[in-house]
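re the bet — no i am not wrong, look at it urself. input seq straight from the record:
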Amino acid sequence: MANTAVLVNEFGKVGLDHHLLRRADEKTVLLEHGCVCCTTREDLVYALLNLLDDEDKGRIPALDRVVVETTGLADPAPILFTVFSHPVLQHHYYVERVISTADVLNGHLHLDRNPEATRQVAASDVVVLTKTDVAEDGEISALRARLQRINPSALIIEVPFGEVDPDQLLRPAADWNNSAPTPEAFVVADGAHVSRTHSTSLTFDGPVDWAAFGTWLSMLLHARGEDVLRVKGLLDAGETGPVLLNGVQHVMHPPEHLEAWPDDDRRSRLVFIARGISSEELIGSLEAFRRIIGARPRLLEANAPV
């Protein structure tokens, strides 16, 4: 898409991908020698600051977006924290969404063996299923079901032959808000793969006190932030529109107060994806705060651990 810079990460000493992606506008940048989630976050900061400087001095046109491509080893949370916490970057960049890819032929293997794979799916707004053109229907449906158990709020897209419309991945955030998951979209499924990751979808029986809920959420993330892989949803705070919540581990996007609800259902719709925190524990913790939150939590769906 036009006016897009791409930061390409190479896990190794010889960078190749940036040569394949480089175009005439020369806005593809190579991040070398490691995974941007840990050893080379300074490379990410340096690259993003350089893009700002190039824009300011007119060396490149004004950018609409920056796409950061990580390695398959990356944990998204430290990358998000880098943008949100940097004294300069936080005023110029906003993390709009996390997109991951899942290889249909090898997806179960990666999820079984690599904890990073589960964290990536949990953090994702969109999961792209690759190699669907060479996979059996049963393989696709089985992986899709497992991904939905991990993250019931993620949009899952199949891309046979690797072909996908960029607009489908990068359309404006307002369009995503209008397609927020409804309670009916939360699917309960038996966990074929046992681990400690739970997905809990909940609502409240009425509006909540935003300040009190924010205090509860802050305490949860302070105590168990590394175990809260994802928080996402719409919260009824008694206003004309909901509060949009979006967080990965202890890193929360700034809450956004929307002007209107995306549909006629004005119930709170929250999804918690957590490691080692059961649905019963979450509901019990909210019940303890019910007097100051102002509404009783109600479980919509809780999946089996996946």
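see?? The first strand starts at residue 4 and ends at 9. told u. also The chain is about 35% helix and 20% strand. so pay up
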